[in-house]
Specification:
The protein is an alpha+beta fold. Helices cover 37% and strands 26% of the residues.
Length: 265
């Protein structure tokens, strides 16, 4: 019974030898099926490779889990021991905050509106791979702890090209400390940073619109804004969905995976 389809197909193919027109039709049909199957396999392979590369690029800038309270300052003194004691699935975590600023070089009138991300240089490399994307550095070591300290920052390669700056150059940062603007005119404060390193993730949005500084520096210019989110890296083979649900339930705050940034079709 198992060989019945093969038996019928074989008898049909043998019968086509008597009729040349039918034989040609069968040959064309088989070639069409072969070409269609090959094209489908090729497209599937290309899409699989594209998805893998996209995942690697997204992981180079995003931590596995992002935990925040809609821009509100987090109480790290209370949250830190809770994460350490109640969540053994967590391998490491690092606080950070993101602010919007205007960046301009000292020698050019061109400017860019970018995201200024304040991090803990000592722990950020445990939750994010951006340190491995550093192409040039003001120091001999291309690491976040050796570069991001004081007024020294990391910037994207595309942003450096847009502003025509390089390692060691100064940048002017313009920003508003007041989050709620009630007037038409806005008074901007100013701060200066030194480019300590340049990174390239391969993602246009980040390479042209991100500056990484220390969290202490952001707290200094924004009057101690504090950390507004925590980046988390889980231990291998951990159920990510369960940890996300547990974090939301325990803290009543937002927690989502880096995978949510990738469109699924």
């Amino acid at each position: 019974m198992k060989n019945l389809p093969f038996f019928l197909a074989w008898n049909y193919l043998k019968g086509t030898k008597r009729e040349k027109s039918i034989s040609a039709m069968v040959l064309v049909s088989f070639l069409g099926i072969l070409i269609g199957s090959f094209a489908l396999a090729l497209v599937a392979s290309v899409m699989n490779g594209f998805e893998k590369v996209t995942h690697e690029k997204m992981q180079s800038i995003h931590p596995q889990i992002i935990f925040h309270a809609d821009g509100q300052t987090l109480n790290l003194k209370k949250i830190t021991p809770t994460l350490q004691n109640e969540f053994p699935q967590i391998e490491s975590f690092s606080p950070n905050t993101i602010k919007q600023v205007i960046a301009q070089s000292d020698t050019d009138e061109d400017y860019s509106i970018i995201a200024l991300k304040g991090i803990d240089p000592q722990t950020e490399h445990n939750v994010c791979k951006i340190g491995k994307k550093i192409t040039t550095s003001i120091t001999s070591k291309k690491t976040i702890p050796s570069i991001v300290k004081g007024d020294k920052v990391l910037i994207g390669e595309k942003l450096a090209q847009n502003l025509d700056v390089s390692i060691g150059d100064k940048l002017n940062l313009y920003f508003s400390k007041n989050a709620k603007i009630k007037r038409k005119r806005i008074k901007l404060d100013q701060a200066f940073v030194t480019i300590g390193g340049i990174f390239k993730t391969g993602i246009e949005e980040f390479d042209s619109g991100l500056i990484v500084s220390s969290l202490d520096f952001v707290n200094t210019i924004f009057d101690d804004v504090g950390a507004t989110q925590i980046s988390i890296q889980l231990k291998p083979n951990t159920n990510e969905t369960q940890v996300l649900q547990a974090l939301r339930s325990r803290f009543s705050m937002q927690a989502y995976s880096w995978n949510s940034f990738i469109p699924h079709y």
